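Practice record 12: protein with pyridoxal-5'-phosphate.
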Amino acid sequence: MPTQLDAAATLTHLAQSDPDIYQMIRSEEERQETTLEMIASENHTSPAVMEAVGSCLTNKYCEGYPTKRYYSGCTYYDAVEQLAIDRAKKLFNCQFANVQPHSGASANTAVFFALLEPGDVYASIVLSEGGHLTHGSPVNLSGKWFKPVHYPLVYDEKRPDWGHIDYDAVRALCLQHKPKLLICGYSAYSRIIDFPRFRAIADECGALLMADIAHIAGLVAAGVHPSPFPHCHVVTTTTHKTLRGPRGGLIMTNDPDLATKIDKAVFPGTQGGPLMHVIAGKAVCFGEALRPSFKDYAKQIVANAKVLAAELTAKGYGIISGGTDNHLILLDLRKTDKELTGKAAALWLEQAGIITNKNTVPKEDRTPFVTSGLRLGTPALTTRGLREPQIRQVADLIHRTLASRGDEKTIAVVRADVAELARQFPMAH
Ligand SMILES: *Cc1c(COP(=O)(O)O)cnc(C)c1O
């Protein structure tokens, strides 16, 4: 008899009871095996994490927090959640962690609910310059129910800090609008975030400082990017990007009063029962990230991104801010060809088996559905074991695809080369 976990890995029950979904999952496995995943926010989590997420822990209601639950039968769930909390605190070197947010967006919603009243002013980056939907988009709760004001990047390409956060503009904006909350942390920003400088501005204008490290959490955990602690009052993140865990969110702080408010804002403020199977997966992920090998992984992510940036620059591509300090680069396609859109580039690359996303760039004049930028990331390729020599090959594959301007024959040849490279780096099972 297979054990429950063996069954989850081999999907024997699913194959029997729901062949349609079974086949879709198998097809997706093959897609992941045979393509190169370069979406900066994606990764391949470990089989251990997937086993936890696929476990019987999905069956239980655990509303509340460890030892303070509303339902009986939570003994093992208390242990799982407490271990996830303890590991998160150790990993990020902080005092309080809430591991229940279902996602990064849920974590941010809970922080808004905890710290702001409807209509309150807060500050975040101009969204088309690297921000996230939950930092004030007019179609998101953060933009509909609160009043965001936005700071820009440095636009002047003659300045050494071109494409970096314009800290003088952040300060001027905050002194003018007196936001209750100042948010740093981004979705398409390739440079180190200066947390102490943000904190000085927050203190000067009387704001609380929040870092949303959704993208860079794995780099922070490994010490490859400076920590938001002790500078930030609140830190939110996802667990599935560079941190390489299950899809989920996390909120941290060092302030006991804020911790109480945040716990109440997550449950019962904005969520019901926690996803205990995912929390178990988070605990496994944090355990993996605490191992020395995770530091090597995070260092290699950045080394790979730097090589990718250098290779693409040498081939004549323009990169916002001129390079990268982290796991991602943002190509400004206008520098290559005024007619080339992010939409076309991402489509051709997908046809070639290289999965990326179109992205807005500073001073964007196309819509978010078309864009002039392309975002590329190295976390998933690094997980598969690609290092500098293969990243040089990947840069070449990207260039051949884009330079073909969509030529079908060229793309078919690149697709075969992509499959061959992918075949040499099988996924962990
Ligand atoms: C990805 C991301 C989020 C949202 O995470 P979800 O899990 O998709 O809700 C929030 N903030 C930033 C900066 C992100 O990049």
